[in-house]
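Worked example 2:
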Amino acid sequence: MPVATHFGPRTMPSNVTDYGSFRVVPVGTAIGAQVEGVDLRQGISAERKDDLNRALLEWKVLFFRDQPLSPEQQRDVARSWGELELHPFLAAGDLPEVVRFAKDATTKGTENAWHSDVTWRQLPSMGSILRAVTVPQRGGDTMWADMALAYDGLPKDIRLRVDDLTAVHDFSETFGRGMAPDELAKMRAEFPPAEHPVIRVHPETGRRTIYVNEIFTSRIVGLPRQESDMLLGLLCAQARIPEYQCRFRWEPDSVAFWDNRSTQHYAISDYWPQERVMERVTIVGDRPF
């Protein structure tokens, strides 16, 4: 059974935190803050990048309103944090680095499961930047969960049990569904299952975070299937605890920038048959340890 840790307020009494050239207003108590005073179209200076990165590490997901970015501008903002991935399974928008998620009356949303992006890669993503192009009149929010707090909330005996375990991450049960056998074999040869720590250490903060998820993690290495399934179910359930979450209501040209090393997210599919179009750029990360 998932366990929630009780914790006190982490924000200043004014509920606003100053980062020098901009300020953030918390969206949730545990995770998420809206940035005020930044126009991403102007690019990211080295100093601004350092301040934003500090805010990202502290809040794990940053939100920006009224950012009418072109695909090139969105790509260039993400490049400030590193190399960008080309997704082998999702449709690109106007640029190869920009993935477009387009849903309408003919296509329902399918991202409504807690996950961290591309954990099936040998080098999973550092973070993702998502921009709202078209949003439904009602619904279509996205939620994020703080997987460091989720780890802290585990009973001590469970933490000791999982700290040194490794899990297998595989795209086959998601992007591989419906593929012809020869095509699936080809893609598995190019993107073989990856093994990552069940509990990874964040390379910048040193925090331990739960690094298994419902859609890409298939099993824990070296455990009988029943025990593996039990532990994965318990760990994945931690993301569903409200005390570890925030929820964001999209508007056109809203932007979210989140840390895939320490969060999971869930796109709420409650807007069909309305239209929802989003564009995402993902930053390549390092090998989890």
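The two ends are 27 Å apart (CA to CA). Residues 8-14 have pLDDT under 50 and may be disordered.
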